[in-house]
TrEMBL record:
GO molecular function: hydrolase activity, acting on carbon-nitrogen (but not peptide) bonds, in cyclic amides; metal ion binding
Organism of origin: Caenorhabditis briggsae
An annotated GO cellular component: cytoplasm
Name of this protein: Amidohydrolase 3 domain-containing protein
Keyword Membrane: no
Length: 145
């Protein structure tokens, strides 16, 4: 279930009890000046939170580092929560949580190699990621970017 800017307490309870994944779209709320979805309340109630870009003409942002930044700033996710929401939980939301979204033996090798002092640089740098992302690996192969 995506967006969720207007989810009710009952909706949160039902999502929690059903095991549904909340796919939050921070750039949409930001660009449209909407109240961000209640990420902290969703997490506090045991709802799995994933992040997406909602890439479309009214939310023309497909940069996941920026999405994670917006999630931290506007929805109060911690950096580890934002990274998990953008990777493992997003994979889980489309039924690929056992094969994608984490670096582990037996999973697809899709990840980035950073040139930074810490992984958090991918989130707290705003819109300047060209020098941070050293390599993109897809299916175990380096992809030219």
């Amino acid at each position: 279930m995506s967006h969720l800017e207007e989810i009710s307490e009952e909706g949160i309870r039902l999502m929690s009890s059903s095991g549904s994944v909340a796919v939050l779209l921070p750039s949409t709320a930001f660009i449209l000046r909407l109240t961000p979805p209640p990420a902290r309340k969703l997490i506090g109630n045991g709802v799995i939170v994933a992040l997406g870009s909602d890439f479309n003409p009214n939310a023309y942002c497909f940069a996941m580092p920026m999405i994670m930044h917006f999630a931290c700033v506007t929805m109060k996710l911690s950096m580890p929560e934002a990274l998990t929401a953008a990777t493992l939980n997003s994979a889980h939301s489309i039924g690929r949580g056992k094969t994608h979204g984490a670096i582990a033996k037996g999973r697809n090798a899709d990840f980035v190699i950073l040139s930074a002092n810490s992984w958090e640089h991918i989130i707290y740098r705003i819109a300047a990621h060209g020098d941070v992302i050293r390599h993109v690996i897809k299916n175990g192969n380096v992809v030219e970017v």
